[in-house]
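Input C-alpha cells:
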C-alpha cells in the first residue's frame, strides 16, 4: 500500500477525536467494481471521505481510496451538488496470470440527499488509471470512469438537525 494511503488511514482513526464541531458520517456504498465502507468528515465548505472495501471479482482483494469534496452553494447538511477529486485503488484487472489492483486519480461530481439521520449520495467521476506491468504483461494508463452510490448514518444527528 502506498505510504500516503497508510498515513491517510491512520489519520482517519484519530480524526473523530479532533472533529467535534464537524459533521461525521459512517456508511456503505458501491462504485464500479467495488463494495466499500466509508467515513466522512466535513464542515460547511466540504468533506473528506475515506473508503475501504473489496473488489467484487473473485480474488480481487481490498481497495483503499479517498476523495475531497467541495459543496456547491450549500453546506454539509443540505441537499445539493458537490465537486471534488479522488485517488487510490479504483479498479482490478486481469494482468498476466493474476488480478492486479489499479490506482487512479480523477475528478468527481455528485448529488447528496440529507435527512437528520441519513445521507444518500449518487456520484460519478472521470480520471486516469496508472500504467501497470507484471512480468511480460503490461497495461497502459487509461481513462477511468467512476459511478457510485452510498448511504451513511450521521454520527451526531442532534447537532446536524439543529443546523437544518
Amino acid at each position: 500500500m502506498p505510504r500516503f494511503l497508510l498515513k491517510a488511514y491512520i489519520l482517519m482513526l484519530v480524526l473523530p477525536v479532533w472533529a467535534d464541531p464537524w459533521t461525521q458520517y459512517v456508511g456503505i456504498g458501491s462504485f464500479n467494481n467495488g463494495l466499500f465502507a466509508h467515513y466522512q468528515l466535513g464542515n460547511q465548505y466540504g468533506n473528506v471521505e475515506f473508503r475501504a472495501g473489496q473488489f467484487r471479482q473473485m480474488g480481487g482483494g481490498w481497495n483503499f481510496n479517498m476523495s475531497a469534496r467541495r459543496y456547491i452553494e450549500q453546506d454539509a447538511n443540505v441537499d445539493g451538488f458537490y465537486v471534488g477529486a479522488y485517488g487510490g485503488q479504483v479498479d482490478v484487472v486481469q494482468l498476466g496470470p493474476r488480478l492486479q489492483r489499479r490506482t487512479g486519480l480523477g475528478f468527481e461530481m455528485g448529488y447528496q440527499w440529507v435527512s437528520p439521520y441519513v445521507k444518500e449520495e449518487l456520484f460519478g467521476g472521470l480520471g486516469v488509471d496508472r500504467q501497470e506491468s507484471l512480468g511480460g504483461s503490461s497495461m497502459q494508463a487509461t481513462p477511468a470512469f467512476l459511478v457510485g452510490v452510498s448511504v451513511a448514518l450521521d454520527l451526531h444527528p442532534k447537532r446536524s438537525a439543529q443546523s437544518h
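The radius of gyration is 17 Å. Helices lie at 3-18, 157-162.
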